[in-house]
Design brief:
heterodimer; A: 280 residues; mainly alpha; MetI-like fold; 74% helix; globular; B: 302 residues
Protein backbone atom coordinates (compact mmCIF):
# COMPACT_ATOMS: atom_id res chain seq x y z
CA UNK A 1 0.00 0.00 0.00
CA UNK A 2 1.14 3.52 -0.78
CA UNK A 3 2.02 5.76 2.11
CA UNK A 4 -1.08 7.78 2.97
CA UNK A 5 -0.85 11.48 1.98
CA UNK A 6 -0.53 14.14 4.71
CA UNK A 7 -4.11 15.28 4.13
CA UNK A 8 -5.30 11.84 5.22
CA UNK A 9 -2.93 11.66 8.18
CA UNK A 10 -3.97 15.09 9.46
CA UNK A 11 -7.66 14.43 9.06
CA UNK A 12 -7.17 11.21 10.94
CA UNK A 13 -5.19 12.85 13.72
CA UNK A 14 -7.68 15.67 14.29
CA UNK A 15 -10.74 13.49 14.01
CA UNK A 16 -9.45 10.83 16.38
CA UNK A 17 -8.37 13.42 18.95
CA UNK A 18 -11.79 15.08 19.01
CA UNK A 19 -13.58 11.75 19.11
CA UNK A 20 -11.43 10.55 22.00
CA UNK A 21 -12.24 13.71 23.95
CA UNK A 22 -15.97 13.30 23.32
CA UNK A 23 -15.87 9.62 24.26
CA UNK A 24 -13.83 9.92 27.41
CA UNK A 25 -15.16 13.14 28.97
CA UNK A 26 -18.03 11.42 30.82
CA UNK A 27 -15.64 8.76 32.06
CA UNK A 28 -13.27 11.40 33.44
CA UNK A 29 -16.17 13.26 35.04
CA UNK A 30 -17.29 10.02 36.65
CA UNK A 31 -13.87 9.25 38.07
CA UNK A 32 -13.00 12.74 39.28
CA UNK A 33 -16.42 13.48 40.76
CA UNK A 34 -16.49 10.20 42.62
CA UNK A 35 -13.42 11.38 44.54
CA UNK A 36 -14.85 14.78 45.53
CA UNK A 37 -16.31 15.89 48.85
CA UNK A 38 -19.98 16.85 48.70
CA UNK A 39 -19.44 20.63 48.57
CA UNK A 40 -17.42 20.23 45.34
CA UNK A 41 -20.34 18.71 43.46
CA UNK A 42 -22.79 21.25 44.87
CA UNK A 43 -20.84 24.27 43.61
CA UNK A 44 -19.64 25.15 40.10
CA UNK A 45 -18.07 22.26 38.26
CA UNK A 46 -14.38 21.61 38.77
CA UNK A 47 -12.19 19.03 37.08
CA UNK A 48 -9.90 18.37 40.02
CA UNK A 49 -11.35 17.68 43.47
CA UNK A 50 -10.50 20.37 46.07
CA UNK A 51 -9.44 17.50 48.28
CA UNK A 52 -9.24 13.87 47.36
CA UNK A 53 -11.60 11.72 49.36
CA UNK A 54 -12.71 8.11 49.25
CA UNK A 55 -15.71 8.85 51.46
CA UNK A 56 -18.24 8.50 48.60
CA UNK A 57 -17.03 4.95 48.04
CA UNK A 58 -17.81 4.11 51.66
CA UNK A 59 -21.05 6.07 51.86
CA UNK A 60 -22.67 4.54 48.78
CA UNK A 61 -23.25 1.25 50.62
CA UNK A 62 -25.24 2.84 53.44
CA UNK A 63 -27.17 5.58 51.61
CA UNK A 64 -29.02 2.89 49.66
CA UNK A 65 -28.80 -0.91 50.07
CA UNK A 66 -26.40 -1.04 47.13
CA UNK A 67 -24.99 -4.45 48.07
CA UNK A 68 -28.48 -5.99 47.85
CA UNK A 69 -29.07 -4.42 44.44
CA UNK A 70 -25.68 -5.66 43.35
CA UNK A 71 -26.47 -9.22 44.38
CA UNK A 72 -29.86 -9.05 42.67
CA UNK A 73 -28.34 -7.76 39.45
CA UNK A 74 -25.65 -10.40 39.58
CA UNK A 75 -28.07 -13.29 40.12
CA UNK A 76 -30.45 -12.07 37.43
CA UNK A 77 -27.77 -11.29 34.85
CA UNK A 78 -25.72 -14.46 35.34
CA UNK A 79 -28.78 -16.72 35.23
CA UNK A 80 -30.22 -14.96 32.20
CA UNK A 81 -26.87 -15.19 30.42
CA UNK A 82 -26.28 -18.88 31.09
CA UNK A 83 -29.81 -19.87 30.09
CA UNK A 84 -29.89 -17.63 27.06
CA UNK A 85 -26.59 -18.93 25.73
CA UNK A 86 -27.54 -22.58 26.30
CA UNK A 87 -30.88 -22.14 24.55
CA UNK A 88 -29.26 -20.19 21.73
CA UNK A 89 -26.67 -22.94 21.19
CA UNK A 90 -29.37 -25.59 20.80
CA UNK A 91 -31.47 -23.44 18.49
CA UNK A 92 -28.54 -22.35 16.37
CA UNK A 93 -27.39 -25.96 16.03
CA UNK A 94 -30.85 -26.99 14.87
CA UNK A 95 -31.07 -24.19 12.33
CA UNK A 96 -27.52 -24.60 11.10
CA UNK A 97 -27.39 -28.40 10.74
CA UNK A 98 -30.89 -29.49 9.81
CA UNK A 99 -33.26 -28.76 6.97
CA UNK A 100 -36.82 -28.98 8.21
CA UNK A 101 -40.25 -27.51 7.65
CA UNK A 102 -40.67 -24.15 9.39
CA UNK A 103 -36.95 -23.40 9.56
CA UNK A 104 -37.26 -20.08 7.80
CA UNK A 105 -40.43 -19.18 9.71
CA UNK A 106 -38.63 -19.81 13.00
CA UNK A 107 -35.70 -17.58 12.10
CA UNK A 108 -37.91 -14.77 10.89
CA UNK A 109 -40.21 -14.98 13.92
CA UNK A 110 -37.39 -14.96 16.44
CA UNK A 111 -35.54 -12.15 14.71
CA UNK A 112 -38.63 -10.02 14.32
CA UNK A 113 -39.23 -10.05 18.07
CA UNK A 114 -36.06 -7.96 18.23
CA UNK A 115 -37.88 -5.03 16.65
CA UNK A 116 -40.87 -5.00 18.97
CA UNK A 117 -40.95 -1.91 21.09
CA UNK A 118 -40.52 -3.06 24.70
CA UNK A 119 -43.35 -0.80 25.72
CA UNK A 120 -45.76 -2.88 23.60
CA UNK A 121 -45.49 -6.02 25.70
CA UNK A 122 -44.45 -4.52 29.03
CA UNK A 123 -47.96 -4.14 30.39
CA UNK A 124 -49.47 -7.36 28.95
CA UNK A 125 -46.48 -9.30 30.21
CA UNK A 126 -46.90 -7.75 33.62
CA UNK A 127 -50.57 -8.81 33.63
CA UNK A 128 -49.73 -12.32 32.38
CA UNK A 129 -47.16 -12.75 35.15
CA UNK A 130 -49.71 -11.62 37.72
CA UNK A 131 -52.29 -14.04 36.30
CA UNK A 132 -49.87 -16.96 36.23
CA UNK A 133 -49.07 -16.17 39.84
CA UNK A 134 -52.72 -16.14 40.81
CA UNK A 135 -53.46 -19.35 38.95
CA UNK A 136 -50.46 -21.50 39.85
CA UNK A 137 -48.84 -19.84 42.84
CA UNK A 138 -45.59 -19.40 40.88
CA UNK A 139 -44.61 -15.84 41.65
CA UNK A 140 -43.15 -14.30 38.49
CA UNK A 141 -44.14 -10.70 39.03
CA UNK A 142 -41.71 -9.02 41.42
CA UNK A 143 -39.48 -12.09 41.48
CA UNK A 144 -36.03 -12.58 40.05
CA UNK A 145 -37.34 -15.54 38.04
CA UNK A 146 -39.68 -13.34 36.04
CA UNK A 147 -36.91 -10.90 35.29
CA UNK A 148 -34.52 -13.70 34.30
CA UNK A 149 -37.06 -15.14 31.84
CA UNK A 150 -37.68 -11.72 30.36
CA UNK A 151 -34.05 -10.76 30.00
CA UNK A 152 -32.99 -14.02 28.46
CA UNK A 153 -35.46 -13.53 25.62
CA UNK A 154 -34.02 -10.08 24.98
CA UNK A 155 -30.62 -11.44 24.01
CA UNK A 156 -31.90 -14.65 22.43
CA UNK A 157 -32.67 -13.41 18.89
CA UNK A 158 -29.31 -11.77 18.34
CA UNK A 159 -27.48 -14.69 19.97
CA UNK A 160 -29.18 -17.27 17.78
CA UNK A 161 -28.54 -15.22 14.66
CA UNK A 162 -24.88 -14.78 15.44
CA UNK A 163 -24.33 -18.42 16.42
CA UNK A 164 -26.06 -19.73 13.28
CA UNK A 165 -23.56 -17.75 11.24
CA UNK A 166 -20.75 -19.09 13.39
CA UNK A 167 -21.87 -22.72 13.26
CA UNK A 168 -22.35 -22.46 9.49
CA UNK A 169 -18.70 -21.54 9.15
CA UNK A 170 -17.59 -24.75 10.91
CA UNK A 171 -17.01 -27.40 8.23
CA UNK A 172 -19.52 -30.22 8.22
CA UNK A 173 -16.73 -32.73 7.54
CA UNK A 174 -15.99 -32.50 11.25
CA UNK A 175 -19.59 -33.45 12.10
CA UNK A 176 -19.49 -36.32 9.67
CA UNK A 177 -16.22 -37.62 11.04
CA UNK A 178 -17.75 -37.57 14.51
CA UNK A 179 -20.83 -39.41 13.24
CA UNK A 180 -18.59 -42.09 11.74
CA UNK A 181 -16.97 -42.43 15.15
CA UNK A 182 -20.42 -43.12 16.55
CA UNK A 183 -21.24 -39.75 18.07
CA UNK A 184 -24.92 -38.84 18.16
CA UNK A 185 -26.08 -35.33 17.23
CA UNK A 186 -25.87 -34.01 20.78
CA UNK A 187 -22.42 -35.46 21.39
CA UNK A 188 -21.31 -33.92 18.11
CA UNK A 189 -22.64 -30.59 19.29
CA UNK A 190 -20.85 -30.77 22.62
CA UNK A 191 -17.60 -32.33 21.39
CA UNK A 192 -17.12 -30.73 17.99
CA UNK A 193 -19.27 -27.70 17.31
CA UNK A 194 -19.18 -25.95 20.69
CA UNK A 195 -15.38 -26.07 21.08
CA UNK A 196 -14.89 -24.85 17.52
CA UNK A 197 -17.33 -21.98 18.09
CA UNK A 198 -15.93 -20.83 21.44
CA UNK A 199 -15.18 -17.26 20.33
CA UNK A 200 -18.72 -16.87 19.07
CA UNK A 201 -20.13 -18.28 22.28
CA UNK A 202 -17.98 -15.96 24.40
CA UNK A 203 -19.15 -13.02 22.31
CA UNK A 204 -22.78 -13.98 22.72
CA UNK A 205 -22.34 -14.40 26.47
CA UNK A 206 -20.84 -10.95 26.81
CA UNK A 207 -23.72 -9.52 24.84
CA UNK A 208 -26.34 -11.35 26.92
CA UNK A 209 -24.78 -10.27 30.19
CA UNK A 210 -24.55 -6.64 29.15
CA UNK A 211 -28.15 -6.65 27.98
CA UNK A 212 -29.38 -7.94 31.32
CA UNK A 213 -27.06 -5.80 33.46
CA UNK A 214 -28.10 -2.56 31.74
CA UNK A 215 -31.86 -3.01 31.31
CA UNK A 216 -34.02 -0.26 32.86
CA UNK A 217 -37.62 -0.35 31.62
CA UNK A 218 -38.68 -3.80 32.77
CA UNK A 219 -36.62 -3.58 35.94
CA UNK A 220 -38.49 -0.42 36.90
CA UNK A 221 -41.86 -2.14 36.64
CA UNK A 222 -41.15 -5.80 37.43
CA UNK A 223 -39.12 -5.56 40.64
CA UNK A 224 -40.08 -4.82 44.22
CA UNK A 225 -38.04 -3.68 47.22
CA UNK A 226 -36.35 -7.03 47.75
CA UNK A 227 -35.61 -7.83 44.11
CA UNK A 228 -34.62 -4.33 42.93
CA UNK A 229 -31.67 -4.30 40.55
CA UNK A 230 -28.94 -1.71 40.10
CA UNK A 231 -30.55 0.00 37.13
CA UNK A 232 -33.43 1.13 39.33
CA UNK A 233 -31.60 1.25 42.65
CA UNK A 234 -29.10 3.85 41.48
CA UNK A 235 -31.87 6.41 41.39
CA UNK A 236 -32.01 6.19 45.18
CA UNK A 237 -29.18 8.69 45.65
CA UNK A 238 -31.51 11.52 44.73
CA UNK A 239 -33.58 12.72 47.67
CA UNK A 240 -36.35 15.28 47.58
CA UNK A 241 -33.94 18.18 48.07
CA UNK A 242 -30.57 16.98 47.05
CA UNK A 243 -28.67 14.65 44.81
CA UNK A 244 -25.46 13.18 46.23
CA UNK A 245 -23.69 13.45 42.89
CA UNK A 246 -20.35 12.31 44.26
CA UNK A 247 -22.00 9.15 45.53
CA UNK A 248 -23.95 8.70 42.31
CA UNK A 249 -20.68 8.84 40.37
CA UNK A 250 -18.92 6.48 42.77
CA UNK A 251 -21.78 3.99 42.58
CA UNK A 252 -21.95 4.28 38.78
CA UNK A 253 -18.28 3.52 38.60
CA UNK A 254 -18.54 0.56 40.94
CA UNK A 255 -21.38 -1.02 38.98
CA UNK A 256 -19.66 -0.32 35.65
CA UNK A 257 -16.25 -1.73 36.40
CA UNK A 258 -17.20 -5.44 36.22
CA UNK A 259 -18.95 -5.15 32.86
CA UNK A 260 -16.54 -2.74 31.27
CA UNK A 261 -13.53 -4.78 32.34
CA UNK A 262 -15.14 -8.01 31.15
CA UNK A 263 -16.15 -6.45 27.88
CA UNK A 264 -12.79 -4.90 27.13
CA UNK A 265 -10.99 -8.14 27.96
CA UNK A 266 -13.25 -10.14 25.70
CA UNK A 267 -13.89 -7.60 22.95
CA UNK A 268 -11.65 -9.29 20.43
CA UNK A 269 -13.97 -12.31 20.60
CA UNK A 270 -16.89 -10.02 19.96
CA UNK A 271 -15.22 -8.59 16.88
CA UNK A 272 -14.26 -12.09 15.72
CA UNK A 273 -17.78 -13.30 16.42
CA UNK A 274 -19.33 -10.44 14.51
CA UNK A 275 -16.97 -11.04 11.61
CA UNK A 276 -17.83 -14.71 11.38
CA UNK A 277 -21.47 -14.51 12.35
CA UNK A 278 -23.63 -11.49 11.91
CA UNK A 279 -21.64 -9.61 9.33
CA UNK A 280 -21.80 -11.53 6.11
CA UNK B 1 -33.67 -43.78 14.65
CA UNK B 2 -35.09 -41.93 11.65
CA UNK B 3 -38.12 -40.85 13.63
CA UNK B 4 -35.99 -39.43 16.38
CA UNK B 5 -33.92 -37.63 13.79
CA UNK B 6 -37.03 -36.09 12.34
CA UNK B 7 -38.14 -34.64 15.64
CA UNK B 8 -34.72 -33.55 16.80
CA UNK B 9 -34.52 -30.13 15.14
CA UNK B 10 -37.88 -29.20 16.60
CA UNK B 11 -36.77 -30.38 20.01
CA UNK B 12 -33.67 -28.19 19.70
CA UNK B 13 -35.77 -25.15 18.88
CA UNK B 14 -38.45 -25.81 21.46
CA UNK B 15 -37.02 -23.85 24.43
CA UNK B 16 -36.33 -20.76 22.35
CA UNK B 17 -39.71 -20.93 20.72
CA UNK B 18 -41.59 -21.47 23.99
CA UNK B 19 -39.89 -18.51 25.64
CA UNK B 20 -40.36 -16.20 22.68
CA UNK B 21 -44.02 -17.16 22.69
CA UNK B 22 -44.41 -16.56 26.42
CA UNK B 23 -42.49 -13.31 26.67
CA UNK B 24 -43.04 -11.69 23.30
CA UNK B 25 -45.75 -13.11 21.09
CA UNK B 26 -48.50 -13.91 23.59
CA UNK B 27 -48.14 -10.56 25.37
CA UNK B 28 -48.21 -8.86 22.02
CA UNK B 29 -51.50 -10.51 21.13
CA UNK B 30 -52.85 -9.70 24.60
CA UNK B 31 -51.73 -6.10 24.07
CA UNK B 32 -53.62 -5.96 20.79
CA UNK B 33 -56.74 -7.29 22.47
CA UNK B 34 -56.33 -4.74 25.26
CA UNK B 35 -56.20 -1.92 22.74
CA UNK B 36 -59.85 -2.63 21.93
CA UNK B 37 -60.91 -2.45 25.57
CA UNK B 38 -61.80 0.35 27.87
CA UNK B 39 -59.01 -0.53 30.24
CA UNK B 40 -58.75 2.04 33.02
CA UNK B 41 -57.58 1.58 36.58
CA UNK B 42 -60.93 0.07 37.61
CA UNK B 43 -60.31 -3.03 35.54
CA UNK B 44 -56.64 -3.68 36.20
CA UNK B 45 -57.25 -6.46 38.72
CA UNK B 46 -59.03 -8.54 36.14
CA UNK B 47 -58.51 -6.99 32.76
CA UNK B 48 -60.64 -9.52 30.90
CA UNK B 49 -63.79 -8.00 32.47
CA UNK B 50 -63.08 -4.57 31.00
CA UNK B 51 -65.79 -3.59 28.53
CA UNK B 52 -65.05 -3.66 24.81
CA UNK B 53 -64.72 -0.25 23.30
CA UNK B 54 -64.20 -1.00 19.64
CA UNK B 55 -61.92 1.48 17.98
CA UNK B 56 -62.38 4.18 20.62
CA UNK B 57 -58.80 3.99 21.88
CA UNK B 58 -57.49 4.36 18.35
CA UNK B 59 -59.87 7.18 17.62
CA UNK B 60 -58.70 9.07 20.69
CA UNK B 61 -55.04 8.43 19.85
CA UNK B 62 -55.21 9.79 16.33
CA UNK B 63 -57.67 12.62 16.94
CA UNK B 64 -55.07 15.28 16.34
CA UNK B 65 -57.37 18.14 17.22
CA UNK B 66 -57.72 16.94 20.85
CA UNK B 67 -54.90 17.15 23.44
CA UNK B 68 -54.16 13.39 23.59
CA UNK B 69 -53.80 13.06 19.82
CA UNK B 70 -51.89 16.32 19.56
CA UNK B 71 -49.31 15.32 22.12
CA UNK B 72 -48.94 11.89 20.49
CA UNK B 73 -48.34 13.52 17.13
CA UNK B 74 -45.81 15.89 18.69
CA UNK B 75 -44.05 12.96 20.30
CA UNK B 76 -44.02 11.12 16.98
CA UNK B 77 -42.34 14.02 15.15
CA UNK B 78 -39.86 14.52 17.97
CA UNK B 79 -38.97 10.83 17.80
CA UNK B 80 -38.58 10.92 14.00
CA UNK B 81 -36.24 13.91 14.12
CA UNK B 82 -34.34 12.43 17.07
CA UNK B 83 -33.90 9.11 15.28
CA UNK B 84 -32.74 10.72 12.05
CA UNK B 85 -30.13 12.82 13.85
CA UNK B 86 -28.95 10.18 16.30
CA UNK B 87 -28.67 7.40 13.70
CA UNK B 88 -27.09 9.73 11.15
CA UNK B 89 -24.38 11.03 13.45
CA UNK B 90 -23.74 7.63 15.04
CA UNK B 91 -23.30 6.07 11.64
CA UNK B 92 -21.04 8.87 10.47
CA UNK B 93 -18.78 8.72 13.54
CA UNK B 94 -18.72 4.93 13.47
CA UNK B 95 -17.77 4.79 9.80
CA UNK B 96 -15.10 7.46 10.09
CA UNK B 97 -13.56 5.85 13.17
CA UNK B 98 -13.57 2.37 11.62
CA UNK B 99 -11.96 3.65 8.42
CA UNK B 100 -9.31 5.65 10.26
CA UNK B 101 -8.43 2.66 12.42
CA UNK B 102 -8.24 0.27 9.48
CA UNK B 103 -4.50 0.63 8.90
CA UNK B 104 -2.31 -0.07 11.87
CA UNK B 105 -0.41 2.77 13.55
CA UNK B 106 0.89 3.40 17.04
CA UNK B 107 -1.89 3.63 19.59
CA UNK B 108 -4.50 2.01 17.35
CA UNK B 109 -5.25 -0.85 19.74
CA UNK B 110 -5.64 1.53 22.65
CA UNK B 111 -8.03 3.81 20.77
CA UNK B 112 -10.08 0.85 19.66
CA UNK B 113 -10.50 -0.21 23.26
CA UNK B 114 -11.29 3.31 24.50
CA UNK B 115 -13.89 3.82 21.79
CA UNK B 116 -15.85 0.81 22.96
CA UNK B 117 -16.24 2.08 26.53
CA UNK B 118 -19.55 3.93 25.95
CA UNK B 119 -21.00 0.73 24.51
CA UNK B 120 -19.75 -1.35 27.41
CA UNK B 121 -20.96 0.99 30.17
CA UNK B 122 -24.38 0.14 31.61
CA UNK B 123 -26.88 2.61 30.15
CA UNK B 124 -28.05 4.00 33.47
CA UNK B 125 -24.53 4.62 34.78
CA UNK B 126 -23.51 6.44 31.60
CA UNK B 127 -26.67 8.47 31.19
CA UNK B 128 -26.77 9.48 34.84
CA UNK B 129 -23.26 10.86 34.38
CA UNK B 130 -24.48 12.89 31.42
CA UNK B 131 -27.36 14.23 33.45
CA UNK B 132 -24.81 15.40 36.04
CA UNK B 133 -22.79 17.04 33.26
CA UNK B 134 -25.91 18.81 31.98
CA UNK B 135 -26.89 20.27 35.39
CA UNK B 136 -27.31 24.04 35.00
CA UNK B 137 -25.24 25.25 37.96
CA UNK B 138 -22.98 22.35 38.81
CA UNK B 139 -22.49 20.67 35.45
CA UNK B 140 -19.45 20.39 33.21
CA UNK B 141 -21.24 21.49 30.03
CA UNK B 142 -22.15 24.96 31.27
CA UNK B 143 -18.78 25.31 32.99
CA UNK B 144 -17.10 24.61 29.67
CA UNK B 145 -19.41 26.63 27.40
CA UNK B 146 -20.04 29.62 29.67
CA UNK B 147 -17.19 29.94 32.17
CA UNK B 148 -14.36 28.83 29.90
CA UNK B 149 -15.43 29.50 26.32
CA UNK B 150 -17.83 32.45 26.96
CA UNK B 151 -20.28 31.17 24.35
CA UNK B 152 -23.38 32.23 26.28
CA UNK B 153 -23.99 35.22 28.54
CA UNK B 154 -26.09 33.22 30.92
CA UNK B 155 -26.06 29.57 31.84
CA UNK B 156 -28.75 27.78 29.81
CA UNK B 157 -30.87 24.93 31.11
CA UNK B 158 -30.15 21.67 29.31
CA UNK B 159 -32.60 19.21 30.79
CA UNK B 160 -35.75 21.30 30.42
CA UNK B 161 -36.98 23.43 27.52
CA UNK B 162 -35.69 23.52 23.95
CA UNK B 163 -32.16 22.49 24.80
CA UNK B 164 -33.33 19.15 26.17
CA UNK B 165 -33.66 17.86 22.61
CA UNK B 166 -30.03 18.70 21.85
CA UNK B 167 -28.92 17.10 25.10
CA UNK B 168 -30.85 13.94 24.27
CA UNK B 169 -29.33 13.67 20.80
CA UNK B 170 -25.80 14.20 22.14
CA UNK B 171 -26.20 11.46 24.75
CA UNK B 172 -27.78 9.07 22.25
CA UNK B 173 -24.99 9.59 19.73
CA UNK B 174 -22.34 9.15 22.40
CA UNK B 175 -23.93 5.89 23.48
CA UNK B 176 -24.74 4.52 20.01
CA UNK B 177 -21.82 5.30 17.72
CA UNK B 178 -19.48 2.67 19.24
CA UNK B 179 -21.87 -0.06 18.15
CA UNK B 180 -21.72 1.22 14.57
CA UNK B 181 -17.94 1.36 14.92
CA UNK B 182 -17.75 -2.20 16.24
CA UNK B 183 -19.93 -3.61 13.47
CA UNK B 184 -18.19 -1.71 10.68
CA UNK B 185 -14.78 -2.68 12.03
CA UNK B 186 -15.82 -6.31 11.75
CA UNK B 187 -17.12 -5.61 8.25
CA UNK B 188 -13.83 -4.05 7.20
CA UNK B 189 -11.92 -7.17 8.14
CA UNK B 190 -13.80 -9.09 5.46
CA UNK B 191 -12.52 -6.90 2.64
CA UNK B 192 -9.68 -8.74 0.87
CA UNK B 193 -6.35 -6.90 1.06
CA UNK B 194 -5.63 -7.73 -2.57
CA UNK B 195 -8.31 -5.26 -3.63
CA UNK B 196 -6.34 -2.43 -2.04
CA UNK B 197 -3.05 -3.67 -3.39
CA UNK B 198 -4.47 -3.88 -6.90
CA UNK B 199 -5.95 -0.39 -6.56
CA UNK B 200 -2.65 1.00 -5.27
CA UNK B 201 -0.89 -0.56 -8.26
CA UNK B 202 -3.32 1.26 -10.52
CA UNK B 203 -2.31 4.47 -8.77
CA UNK B 204 -5.48 5.01 -6.70
CA UNK B 205 -4.85 7.20 -3.63
CA UNK B 206 -6.18 6.64 -0.13
CA UNK B 207 -9.28 8.77 -0.62
CA UNK B 208 -10.08 7.08 -3.89
CA UNK B 209 -9.67 3.62 -2.38
CA UNK B 210 -12.04 4.68 0.36
CA UNK B 211 -14.67 5.71 -2.17
CA UNK B 212 -14.19 2.91 -4.65
CA UNK B 213 -13.45 -0.08 -2.41
CA UNK B 214 -14.19 0.47 1.25
CA UNK B 215 -17.60 2.08 1.16
CA UNK B 216 -19.10 -0.18 -1.55
CA UNK B 217 -17.79 -3.28 0.25
CA UNK B 218 -19.50 -2.18 3.45
CA UNK B 219 -22.90 -1.87 1.82
CA UNK B 220 -24.29 -5.25 2.99
CA UNK B 221 -23.13 -4.52 6.55
CA UNK B 222 -24.67 -1.08 6.38
CA UNK B 223 -27.97 -2.46 5.20
CA UNK B 224 -28.39 -4.38 8.46
CA UNK B 225 -26.62 -1.84 10.68
CA UNK B 226 -28.77 1.13 9.71
CA UNK B 227 -31.96 -0.87 10.22
CA UNK B 228 -30.87 -2.08 13.66
CA UNK B 229 -29.80 1.43 14.68
CA UNK B 230 -33.10 2.81 13.48
CA UNK B 231 -35.18 0.32 15.46
CA UNK B 232 -33.14 0.69 18.65
CA UNK B 233 -33.13 4.45 18.52
CA UNK B 234 -36.78 4.82 17.64
CA UNK B 235 -37.77 2.56 20.55
CA UNK B 236 -35.25 4.03 22.97
CA UNK B 237 -36.67 4.31 26.44
CA UNK B 238 -33.65 4.09 28.71
CA UNK B 239 -31.85 7.24 27.61
CA UNK B 240 -34.68 9.74 28.13
CA UNK B 241 -35.94 7.88 31.19
CA UNK B 242 -32.63 8.14 33.03
CA UNK B 243 -31.71 11.56 31.63
CA UNK B 244 -34.95 13.36 32.46
CA UNK B 245 -36.53 11.20 35.13
CA UNK B 246 -40.16 10.28 34.86
CA UNK B 247 -41.38 13.44 33.13
CA UNK B 248 -39.61 14.11 29.86
CA UNK B 249 -39.87 17.68 28.57
CA UNK B 250 -42.26 18.11 25.66
CA UNK B 251 -39.38 18.93 23.30
CA UNK B 252 -37.71 15.58 24.02
CA UNK B 253 -40.81 13.45 24.53
CA UNK B 254 -39.81 10.23 22.77
CA UNK B 255 -42.57 7.87 21.80
CA UNK B 256 -41.70 5.09 24.27
CA UNK B 257 -41.70 7.50 27.18
CA UNK B 258 -44.90 9.04 25.91
CA UNK B 259 -46.69 5.69 25.82
CA UNK B 260 -45.26 4.71 29.20
CA UNK B 261 -46.63 7.91 30.68
CA UNK B 262 -49.98 7.50 28.97
CA UNK B 263 -50.23 4.01 30.46
CA UNK B 264 -48.63 4.07 33.88
CA UNK B 265 -49.08 7.64 34.98
CA UNK B 266 -52.65 8.19 33.85
CA UNK B 267 -53.54 4.49 34.24
CA UNK B 268 -55.21 4.43 30.87
CA UNK B 269 -53.84 1.14 29.60
CA UNK B 270 -56.32 0.80 26.75
CA UNK B 271 -55.13 3.98 25.07
CA UNK B 272 -51.50 3.09 25.82
CA UNK B 273 -51.95 -0.28 24.12
CA UNK B 274 -53.57 1.32 21.09
CA UNK B 275 -50.60 3.69 20.77
CA UNK B 276 -48.18 0.75 21.08
CA UNK B 277 -49.97 -1.11 18.30
CA UNK B 278 -49.82 1.98 16.08
CA UNK B 279 -46.11 2.25 16.83
CA UNK B 280 -45.58 -1.39 15.88
CA UNK B 281 -47.48 -0.94 12.62
CA UNK B 282 -45.38 2.09 11.78
CA UNK B 283 -42.13 0.21 12.47
CA UNK B 284 -43.26 -2.77 10.40
CA UNK B 285 -44.14 -0.49 7.51
CA UNK B 286 -40.83 1.37 7.60
CA UNK B 287 -38.87 -1.88 7.88
CA UNK B 288 -40.74 -3.45 4.96
CA UNK B 289 -40.20 -0.42 2.74
CA UNK B 290 -36.55 -0.20 3.76
CA UNK B 291 -35.86 -3.87 3.08
CA UNK B 292 -37.73 -3.71 -0.22
CA UNK B 293 -35.62 -0.86 -1.54
CA UNK B 294 -32.25 -1.85 -0.12
CA UNK B 295 -32.61 -5.48 -1.25
CA UNK B 296 -33.64 -4.43 -4.72
CA UNK B 297 -30.65 -2.18 -5.00
CA UNK B 298 -28.44 -5.00 -3.82
CA UNK B 299 -29.86 -7.35 -6.43
CA UNK B 300 -29.40 -4.73 -9.09
CA UNK B 301 -25.75 -4.33 -8.10
CA UNK B 302 -25.03 -8.03 -8.15
Amino acid sequence: MLKPPPSFLWTRRIFLTLLTAFTLTPVLVMVSSSLKPLQDVQGPFRWIPSELTFRPYLDIWSTVPLADYFVNSLIVSVSATVLSVLIAIFSAYGVSRYRFRGRKLFTVTVLSTQMFPGILFLLPLFLIFVNIGNATGVALYGSRGGLILTYLTFSLPFSIWMLVGYFDSIPRDLDEAAAVDGCGPLRTLVRIVVPAATPGIVAVSVYAFMTAWGEVLFASVMTNDTTRTLSVGLQGYATQNDVYWNQVMAASLVVSVPVVAGFLLLQRYLVAGLTAGAVK
Amino acid sequence: MTRRRLGLPYLLLLPALALELLIHLVPMVVGMVMSFKQLTQFYIRDWSTAPWSGLDNYRVSVDFSAPIGQSLLNSFWVTCLFTALAVGFSWLLGTAAAVFLQESFRGRGLLRTLFLIPYALPVYAAVITWSFMFQRDTGLVNHLLVDQLYLFDEKPFWLIGDNSFTALVVVAVWKTWPFAFLTLMAGLQNIPRELYEAAAMDGAGVWQQLRKITLPSLRPVNQVLVLVLFLWTFNDFNTPYVLFGKSAPEQADLISIHIYQSSFVTWNFGAGSAMSVLLLLFLLLVTAIYLFFTSRRRDADA
